[in-house]
C-alpha cells in the first residue's frame, strides 16, 4: 500500500518543472525507436506461433462432424483479438522492454547519473520516465496490431498446411460475425498494458539502491510486478468493458 | 561563500548529522573530511539539495537555499556544478554531448558558442581529442576529467566534488586534485571536496572541516591540521604507518 502511494507520487512528479516540448519530442522519438526495435522480433515470433498453436488445438478439440471447419478461423480470430495479441504480447513486452527500462534507470541511479541530472536542475523523473511511458503507449498498440495479424496468419498457415481447414473456410471464419468493438477493446487493453509495464518498470528501476546486483533484482522485480499488473488489469477491463 | 547552519538529518530514526555548521570560502578548495560512514556525502548532498535536511539553513552568498522558493532554488542550482564519484557521465552520450548537456538546458547560446565553450573546457581539463568518444571507452581518470569539464561548463560559482580519488591510482589522484585546485583559483569559485584521503588533505586543503560521527569536531587549514590536539582527528590524520612514524620522530625532536 505504501509503495502504491509512492508509485502515484512518482508518476505525479513527472509533470513538475518540465523541459521544453522539443526536448521531449526528441527523447520520445529515441525511445520509440528503441522500444520498437527491441521487441518487434520476439513479438513477431511469439504471435505467429501462438496463432498456429491455437488453430491446431481448436481443430483437435472439434470432434463433432456437425461443427464446420470455418469455426477454426473464427475461434483463432476471437482468441487473438480479445486475449492473445494484447495480453500474451504484453507479457513478452514486460520481459523485453520492462526489464530494459528498469535496468537502464537502475544503472543510472547507482552511477549517480540521476543525481547529476537533478543537480543540473533537471526533473529526472520527467526527463527520463515520461518519454519512455509515452513511447511505450504509442509503440505497443502498433506491436499488438502486428501481433494480431501475424497470429491470424500463423493460424492460417497451420490450418491450411496440415489440411485442418481450407483457405476459403479459414478466411470465411475470420470474417464471420465480426464485431468491430473487439478491436477497440484490444487497443484499449494495449494502451493500458503499455502504461503499466513502462511506469512500473521505471518506478522499480528509479528506486534501485546498491550496486550491479540490485540492478538485476530491480529488473526481475519490474517484470514480475508488470506481469501481475497486466493480468489484474486484463481481468478488470474484461469485467468493465465486456459485460 | 556558502554557509550552512545547524544541519540535522536522520534516516529511519538513525541520526546521521547532529547539527553541523560551517562555511566554505570563495576562491578556496574547501574540504569535508572524516572516515567512511560519518555523513560526509549526506552533508554534501544536503548542501546541493539532493537530500532535504530535517533542520538547518544553507546560504549561498546570503541567499537561503533551504528556505527559498522554487525560483530561487533553480537560480542557485544554475550556479552549481558537481563531480560525482565515478564521473556520472551519461553513458548513452559522447564526451562532447555530456559536456554540452548543461548548455543545452538553457537557451541563449548559438551552436557555435556552445561547441567553443565545450572545447575550451575539455582543453582545460587536458582532453583535447576525446570529443567523440563514449564514456565506456575512456579510463577512470579521463571520466573524472570529463566530469569536471561538464561541472564547470556553464559558468558555475560553486563546484562540489565527492571523493575525487575513489577508484584512481595515487598518481592520477594527485593530477585530478591539482586540477580541481587550479580551476578553483582560476575561476575564483567556491569548491567543496569530500574526501577521506590524507594526500588530498595535505595537497589541496585550503579550508578543512573534520566530521566525526555526524558532528564537526575541527575546522582549519592544512597547515594547522598536523598540530591539532583533537584526539579523533589525530587518529584520522596519522592513520597510516608512515605518518605515524613521522609524527613520532617529530614528537621526540620537540
Ligand atoms: N539515502 C539514505 N538512506 C538511509 N541511510 C543513508 C542514506 N544515505 C546515507 N545513509 C547512511 O548515512 C550514513 C553516512 O553515509 P555517508 O554520508 O555516505 O558517509 P560518508 O561519510 O562515507 O560519505 C551511513 O551510515 C549511510 O548508511
Ligand atoms: Mg561518501
Task: Please give a structural write-up.
- The complex is a heterodimer of chains A (243) and B (254).
- By secondary structure, chain A is mainly alpha-helical.
- Chain A has one domain (20-242).
- Chain A contains eight helices and no strands.
- Chain A has helices spanning 2-12, 21-61, 70-110, 113-119, 124-161, 167-175, 181-206, 212-242.
- The mean pLDDT of chain A is 94.
- Chain B has a domain at 1-79 and 183-254: 3-Layer(aba) Sandwich (Rossmann fold), CATH 3.40.50.300.
- In chain B, helix 6 (170-187) links the parallel strand 7 and strand 8 (190-195).
- Chain B is globular, with a radius of gyration of 19 Å.
- Chain B is built from ten helices and ten strands.
- Chain B has 254 residues and is an alpha/beta fold.
- In chain B, the strands form two sheets. A six-stranded mixed β-sheet of chain B has the order 6-7-8-3-9-10, sandwiched between helices.
- In chain B, helix 3 (95-104) packs parallel to helix 5 (140-152).
- The structure holds adenosine-5'-diphosphate and magnesium ion.
- Magnesium ion binds at residues 40-41, 163 of chain B.
- The site of magnesium ion has 3 residues of chain B, from helix 1.
